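Progress narrative, Year 2. Work on DinB family protein from Streptomyces genisteinicus advanced from sequence curation to structure prediction during this period.
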Amino acid sequence: MTTDERTDPRTDPRTDAGERETLTAFLDYHRETLLMKCADLTDEQLRTPAVAPSTLTLMGLVRHIADVERWWFRTVLAGEEIEPLYYSEKDPDGDFRTTASTTWDATLADWRAEVAAAREVTAARGLDDLGVRPSRSGEPFNLRWVLTHMIEEYARHNGHADLLREAIDGVTGE
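Result:
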């Protein structure tokens, strides 16, 4: 089965939109793509790696991207002093890791909360507005840069999700 044979929930970005609408629409498109790759699977399937020795799973990708949303929007742009959801200095890949007790419902709820927070941060700023936390070299990030980076982050991981989903049940598509 291909994605086209199922209902595609994504909204195509407008081709005549301004810069801000284009950036946010493409980010939302990629957010929806990642969820689409996880649709109609069990918790066990969402915790299934595609190819040994990799331990990468669809649920791990969603956990990771929830932490990425949290970092870039809430910590870097808004300056919130909050801990990551899943990783730590002792376990820097904890966001990718799942266990038998890791559930899709909890993972999805965390991801949705971080996306909602990211949208609030985005709505309160202009594209040129600078974040609070600077880069390693001391340069500030503006909202435009963060939105572009998040599109890149999702696009890369959606490529991983394509392969994981195909290995799980043969579903393919963009």
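The chain has one domain: 9-169. Residues 9-169 form a domain with the Four Helix Bundle (Hemerythrin (Met), subunit A) fold (CATH 1.20.120.450).
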